[in-house]
Amino acid sequence: MQIPFTVAPRPDTGVNNAKIGVWLFLASEVMLFGGLFSAYIFLRIGAPEWPGEIGGHMYERASDILNVPLATLNTIILIGSSVTMVMSWASLAMKRFDRYRLYMGATIALGFAFLIVKAFEYGEKFSHGYLPAENNFLAIYFVLTGLHGLHVIGGIIVNMYFMWPGARMWKTDPKRFTNRIEIAGLYWHFVDLVWIFLFPTIYLL
Amino acid sequence: MSEHSVEEIKKHVRVYMLVFGSLAVLTAVTVVVGYLELPFVPALIVALLIATVKAGLVAAYFMHLVSEEQVIRSLVWLSLGLLLVMFLLFSVYYVDQIGLMIFGF
Amino acid sequence: MADHAAVPEGHHGEDVHHTSFWRKYIFSTDHKVIGIQYGITALLFLLFGFSLVMLMRWQLAYPGEPVPLIGWLFTDDTMPGGIMLPEFYNQLGAMHGTIMVFLGIVPLAVGAFGNYIVPLQIGAPDMAFPKLNMASYWAFFVGGVIMLGSFFVPAGAAKAGWTSYAPLSVIESMGQTMWLLGMVFLITSSLLGAVNFLTTIVQLRAEGMTFMRMPFFVWAQFITSFLLLLAFPPLEAAAFLQLSDRLLDTSFFMPSGLVVSGEVVDVAGGGSPLLWQHLFWFLAHPEVYVLVLPAMGIVAEIIANNSRKPLRGYKAMVYSLIFLGFMSFIVWAHHMFITGMGQAMSVFFQTTTMIISIPSVIILTALFLSLWGGSIRFTTPMLFALGFLPMFGIGGLTGLPLGLAPTDIPLHDTYYVIGHFHYVVAPGTILALMAGIYYWFPKMTGRTMNDTLGKIHFWGTIVSMNFIFFPMLIQGMAGVSRRLYDGGEIYAHAQDVIVYNEVMSIASWVLFVFQIPFIVNLLISLKKGKAATDNHWDATTIEWSAAPSPPVGHGNFHDLPQVYRDPYEYSHPDHDEDYWPQNAPPAEASED
Asked: Using CB atoms, which residue from A29, A39, A131 is nearest to C279?
């Protein structure tokens, strides 16, 4: 038994199954982060001060607690990884598997770089005793960035799969493999997209 | 998106580089505006505007929405519409109850 | 709804690549096997959830008296000497709701029927992502095990109601953490399922199966999947936040200065209990439609088939369905009128709530009108489908006073609310699901269920269900709260209506007795039922007319069907037989 339209697009919709599937998944992710952002809005509107009191000290601005330069660095890293991701797909579309390896490797490395910077940031907070239980600003900061971080980890795992074991498909079914990289890319860009909103709302406002 | 000639892809790549440049510039602008310590409402508007433009660039070019099929685009609009409804009702709920305190009114 | 016998014996021979027992029945990727796995699990959960409430009904009818016969089975921290403790009553209540909604009805309506029937009705060889389908079932299974396991942790299962309102749920015992973990698995399962259904319906429709030729059941599953896909994630977000409140001591839902048992709770505070309600009902209102739309789909199939005429206003029904789907996202706060919301919001949500009743009325009216002038066959599935119509009608109409703030405020949290939504889901949805079981059993097993037992099951069920739920409406209007462990014994205002407690409880046990013929029927018909033909009900939709009963092991159809016409061409003037299958090639070239 063969499931139709796994590789070739269906004529009347113009897309294949995997692409519809991943976009549906991303739509649900939009609502997942949407729920958390709504919670952020709700808590923030209800709070008399934001970020408010942490460890007996009143803060007026998020940037007084959070490390904006590190977060800016992370923004650039993540945007860069999006570019390398889309380049890895473009390389496959141009039948350049060697370049694909290079760009995919760069994407994975940038993903790890993001996590390392994030770990420094978290460590700095923990060392000051800024824990999620301290106040709601920190709580929403840790939950939102933490969930985003989990998505980055998930993306790295997927990318590593396509970098090594999954790449065997390039020899047997190059077209399907190119599609798969595009799909993985859509997810990775979405993770980037979430960060693009996270960065100003949590760090700068 | 997989039915492209090498020439076309090369054109794509140039666009990707342009997008990367604009994203980097916009990130810098957000951070600089952040350090200006504007009052809340203008800061909010500027930050969200820039974020939306950046997100739009990523979605349109990296995620190929600009040349994507109708099915996918309708789905994206549907989820964005619902998201907007959710944000709107969550904030209006509070504003309706306690007034526009947050904006300093 | 069969066990392994549902997989055709005849196809053992065709299976060239000898799949092992585990691959074939346990970790199968065949949508039919997965559908049946969902079906069996969901039916067992329905039975379990029903047992929980039968225990509760004993306490409500005879407060403080030891439960007879089975009382000794329970431990001392739940029912010492057979007398139920209030904490245990609360566990039963919370878990009854959770199990019935998330582990019983949704998996049966969407997981079982959706999985089994949708690919067959659109002419697809399987779901678009068979492995994802399997993952969806196993995520559901793990979620179910966690929920059941929560009864055995210290201090028992969740006690904060199926809605898990904060801050009560945050200060609850460990069972609540299990509840949240279980929900995360169940939500993940639903999301995987929804992605799969939507992709399948959009991508794998057979040639000629345009959207407007899809059977109404497929449309119902399509909209349901959208609701699952887009409404469930906010609850997943809320579950993460509550988990963090419980495990990391954050205060997303914990207000400042909360006092519990005379002491201020030691949290940072500043959170909002209302935030939980918003996120919860943002899911849970669409969830109501998740419960009822597949039921409407099943009923539409059966009514068209058994009245031997096309559905009246198929297009209007489809458009109503789509509109219903959209609207269900902006009515949620009608569950929260007593939270002190502002005037403008209250008016907004009352208006949208009144508007959303219009499409449901259109669908129900279209179903009623479809009976008009039909030559009705009173088969067992048809009886259940006909039973659905007035029962769902009562459920819907009793909802109107709850959708308007002035009448909702006195009725809120009374038995009226319980009566209302049980009319929607119990005599409503569950009757429709039963109808579906009787209707599609021949397709799934190649055998038919016994008609006499089916009719006993139907009459017993519908009568006893009304004796359970109608007195609730009366009690509720007298002001009896839904949360009373003694059924309202100590309240003066409840005295006039307290007598109904016994009536309802006895009716609930009678209802159980009338499920026995169904269980017997199901099990015996699997092996001994009369053999069914491929198109047992002379139906037009292609799961009957193009696929053998039961369908081919892998791929469903011998050849993928081609579709030529609308789904319900019964008694067509240009055709000799009273049904004209969707896949029958037209005789004249001019047709359709």
From this structure: A39
